[in-house]
Amino acid sequence: MRKTLLMSALMLTLAACQSSEAPQQAAAPAPAPATEPAPAPAPVTPPMAVSSPEFLAKLDGVIAGAQRDPANVARDGFRHPRETLAFFGLNSGQRVIEITPGGGWYTEILAPALKDEGSYVAAIINPESVSNERAKEYYTKSNQGFRDKLAGNPDAYGSAEVLEFDMSAPNFGEDRSADLVVTFRNVHNWVGNDSVQGMFQGFYNVLKPGGVLGVVEHRAAADDTRELKDVARSGYFPEALVIEMAEKAGFKLAEKSEINANPADTKDHPNGVWTLPPSLNMKDVPEADHAKYQAMGESDRMTLKFVKPAQ
To answer: Which member of 16, 35, 98, 154 has the lowest number of beta carbons within 10 Å of its beta carbon?
Structure first.
C-alpha cells in the first residue's frame, strides 16, 4: 500500500513539472544576408595619345623644314614647339584643330606634320560674327592673309582645312570628331567678346572621349587682383581661371608643364606682353629700359593639358 502511494505521488510530481514548462520550439533559421547589386563598372576613358618615336622623328624634320619663316624659327627657343607638341600627345593619324592660328606660326609645323597622316584644321573667326567694325576689318584682313599663306605653299599646306566659326556660338565641327584641340596665347582675346566659356564648351563638344585640349597662354601673376578684363588687356590670363573654365565645360586637368615658363618675366610692363619680344612695343618706355625688355625674353606661359573623360 505504501509503495503504491509513493508511485502515485511521483507520477503526480512529474505531470506537474511537465505542465509548467512551455514547449520549446525549434529556432528559426537566421535570415540570409541581403545581396547588394554589383556596382556598375566605371566608364573607361580611352588612353591619351602619346607621340611615337617615329612621329617625333618626322616632327623634327618638319621643324627644320624650309617651309618655316626664319623669323618664326628664331622664336623656337621661347616656344619649344617639339616639346610642347609632344607634351600634348600629337601623333600621326589624328584630327587636330588649331584655334585662331593668327599668322600661322604653328601651322607651319602642324599642317606638314599631319599631311597624309592625319588632318589639320585651322579654326578662324568669321568676321561677320563680331559686331565691332574695327574687329571685323581686322579679322577679314587676317583671315585673307592666312589663306594666302596656305595657298602659297600647297606642297606643305595643301591638305589643311580652314573652318570659320561664330564667336557667339562656337562650333568646331561634328561632335566627338577631333583627337586634339590646341590654342596658343589666345584665351585673353576672348574676354572682350564675353565668349571664353563658350569657347571651352565648343572644344569639349568637338573632342572625342579621351581627346586632349592643349592650352598655352601668357600667365598672369598669381597675386594680380585687377579685374579680369584689365588683366586680359595686358595679354596675361590667370592660370587658375583657365583650369576652372575648362573643368566647368567638363574637362579634367591631366597635367601641367613648365616647358614655356619664363621666371624672368615680371609681368608689370607698360604695354603688357607686347612690351616684350617679339613685339617690343616701346611706346612711352624710356630708351634706357629698351635693353631690359629685350633681355627679358618672351612672356612667362602656362602649358596645360586637359582630357575629355568618357561620357
So the answer is: 35
